[in-house]
């Protein structure tokens, strides 16, 4: 069963960075409606993939254009409103899991729920449920340093799903993992996507990209729609 999550849409979105005396056009203006499901973003290093993701998240301010989720224009929200909006609608998974080192796996998953104002009892129950979902109910009290890379990344996914986000953004989440562990992480992202979420996954790995529902190619800041076949050059 898929839920009706709000749609992620960008219009005329671009980003220029100052660079010495000149400028870098990290992202050339583009418009796109992200379909629900898993979208793989592929492109060489330095092509603008992370810039795109940071713009989608509202971590970066666009030079032109806007990012909309369910009709709300992220770009025009103030800093505090944007943080609240992110908490309510987004989940993030990074290449390095970014878990809080002094909190247990369970506490890490609880963290965004605490920020969102859930009661301790409620958030503990939800965090346990999420750890079970990623197959780590037996690691609840482990600190991040006591987990393998793949386990830590699965905790990060559980944390990212805590707020039941409509948009899940992942920047090279399998980049540091061996193939089998990477597949497990990918399967969790696919599961999140098949529930009707918009999952945007940056990856260097063609095998990973091949399993996505939709494809975007980025080259020198230019985003184009890609078919699976066109990924293989
Ligand atoms: P990718 O994630 O595809 O490797 P990025 O989006 O990180 O690429 O970078 C795209 C381009 O923008 C690169 O040329 C990079 O050097 C430049 N860039 C990225 N972030 C900044 C920044 N904060 N300041 C200046 N230039 C940046
Ligand atoms: Mg990057």
UniProtKB/TrEMBL annotation:
Domain ABC transporter: start-end pairs: 8-232
Q: Enumerate the PROSITE patterns for this protein.
A: ABC_TRANSPORTER_1, ABC_TRANSPORTER_2
SMART domains, alphabetized? AAA (SM00382)
Domain of life from the UniProt record:
Bacteria
Keyword Transmembrane helix among UniProt keywords = no
- Asked if the record carries the keyword Transport, the reply is yes
Q: Name one GO molecular function term.
A: ATP binding
UniProtKB keywords: ATP-binding, Nucleotide-binding, Transport
Q: Which GO terms describe its cellular component?
A: membrane protein complex; plasma membrane
Q: Which CDD domains match?
A: ABC_MJ0796_LolCDE_FtsE
Protein's name in the database: ATP-binding cassette domain-containing protein
- Per the UniProt record, the source organism is Deinococcus arboris
Organismal lineage: Bacteria, Thermotogati, Deinococcota, Deinococci, Deinococcales
